C-alpha cells in the first residue's frame, strides 16, 4: 500500500502546484508553455520508465539485503524507532545533496544533468525532467546510498514521497509571500532558493544543491539566497537557443561534443549586471 500511495500523492502535488503557479507566478515565462510541457513530460516519461525498470527494483533489492544482513549506519547502534527514522531521513537527504553536487562537478555526469538545466523556464514540469541516462546512472548511487544507510522500508517510502513532492515544490514557479517563504526556507528548500540554482550565472548555478533540507548548503557553504528572482535568467547560456530545447536535441545532447556552458552563441558570458542584495547570502531575496 505504501508504494501505491507514493505516485498518487506525487501526482496530486504536481496538479496542485501546476494550478497554483498559474495563479501566482514567481517569474515571467520566456517561452510558450505548451511546447515546453510536451518536451518536459516526454523527457520525464523516459526517466520514469528507466526508474521503474531499473532504479526502483535495484533500490528495493538493496533495501532488502541491507535489512537482512543488518548492514549500514542505522544498524551500528540500537536506537529508539523515532530516532532511527529521523537519522535515516537525514542521511538519505544528505546523500542526495552529495549526489547533486557530483552531477554538477563531474564532467561526464554534468553532460546528462545539464538536460535538466537547459529548460529555458522553471516550473513544476521541470521537476522530473531528467535525462534517462542520468536516471540510469543513479542506480549505482542508490545501491551505495541505501546499503550504507541501511534504513527500513517504511523510512525509505516516507523519504521517497517527501523527496519527490519537495522536488516538485522547489522547482515550481509559485510565488509565496516573501516573509512566509523566508520562514519556510529555514526548514525546506523553496522555489526562490532553487530558482537561483537554475541561473545562467555559473557561480549561482553552483549553489543551493539541497533537495529537501537547506541545512546542507548552509553547513557546506554552498548557500546563496540574496539574488532577486527578477534578476535571474533561467537556463544554461551555451544551450539557450530555441532549438536546444527540442526533444531530439535535448536527448542527444549528452552524446555530442559539448559547448562552453557559460558562454552564449555570441560569445558573451552571462554575468550579474546588478550587485546582489547587500544582505548576506543566507538572507532570501524577493
Distance between the termini: 41 Å
Low-confidence stretches: none
- Tell me the radius of gyration: 19 Å
Mean pLDDT score: 94
Report the biggest beta sheet as strand number plus sense, adding barrel if it closes.
Answer: none
Q: Provide the helix percentage.
A: 55-70%
Strand tally is 0
| Structural classification | mainly alpha
Individual helix count: 11
The gross shape turns out to be globular
Number of domains: 1
Strand content: under 5%
Protein architecture, described:
With about 290 residues, the chain is mostly helical. Helix 3 crosses helix 4. It contains eleven helices and no strands. The protein has helices at about 1-25, 35-70, 80-105, 105-115, 130-150, 155-170, 180-185, 190-195, 200-205, 215-220, 245-250. The chain has one domain (about 1-255).
In short:
This protein has 286 residues and is an all-alpha fold.
Amino acid at each position: 500500500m505504501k508504494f501505491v500511495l507514493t505516485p498518487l500523492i506525487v501526482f496530486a502535488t504536481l496538479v496542485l502546484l501546476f494550478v497554483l503557479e498559474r495563479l501566482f507566478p514567481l517569474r515571467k515565462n520566456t517561452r510558450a508553455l505548451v511546447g515546453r510541457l510536451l518536451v518536459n513530460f516526454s523527457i520525464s516519461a523516459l526517466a520514469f520508465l528507466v526508474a521503474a525498470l531499473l532504479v526502483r527494483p535495484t533500490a528495493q533489492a538493496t533495501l532488502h539485503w541491507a535489512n537482512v544482513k543488518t548492514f549500514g549506519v542505522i544498524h551500528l547502534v540500537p536506537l529508539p524507532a523515532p530516532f532511527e527514522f529521523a537519522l535515516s531521513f537525514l542521511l538519505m537527504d544528505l546523500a542526495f545533496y552529495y549526489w547533486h553536487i557530483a552531477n554538477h562537478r563531474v564532467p561526464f555526469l554534468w553532460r546528462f544533468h545539464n538536460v535538466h538545466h537547459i529548460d529555458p523556464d522553471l516550473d513544476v514540469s521541470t521537476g522530473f525532467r531528467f535525462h534517462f541516462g542520468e536516471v540510469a546512472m543513479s542506480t549505482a548511487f542508490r545501491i551505495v546510498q541505501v546499503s550504507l544507510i541501511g534504513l527500513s522500508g517504511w523510512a525509505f517510502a516516507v523519504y521517497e514521497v517527501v523527496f519527490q513532492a519537495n522536488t516538485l515544490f522547489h522547482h515550481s514557479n509559485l510565488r509565496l509571500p516573501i516573509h512566509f517563504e523566508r520562514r519556510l526556507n529555514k526548514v525546506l528548500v523553496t522555489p526562490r532558493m532553487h530558482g537561483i540554482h537554475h541561473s545562467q550565472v555559473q557561480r549561482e548555478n553552483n549553489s543551493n544543491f539541497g533537495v529537501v533540507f537547506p541545512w546542507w548548503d548552509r553547513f557546506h557553504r554552498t548557500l546563496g539566497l540574496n539574488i532577486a528572482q527578477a534578476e535571474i535568467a533561467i537556463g544554461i547560456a551555451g544551450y539557450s537557443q530555441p532549438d536546444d530545447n527540442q526533444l531530439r536535441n535535448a536527448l542527444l545532447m549528452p552524446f555530442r561534443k559539448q559547448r562552453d556552458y557559460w558562454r552564449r552563441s555570441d560569445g558573451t558570458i552571462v554575468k550579474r549586471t546588478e550587485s546582489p542584495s547587500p544582505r548576506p547570502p543566507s538572507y532570501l531575496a524577493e
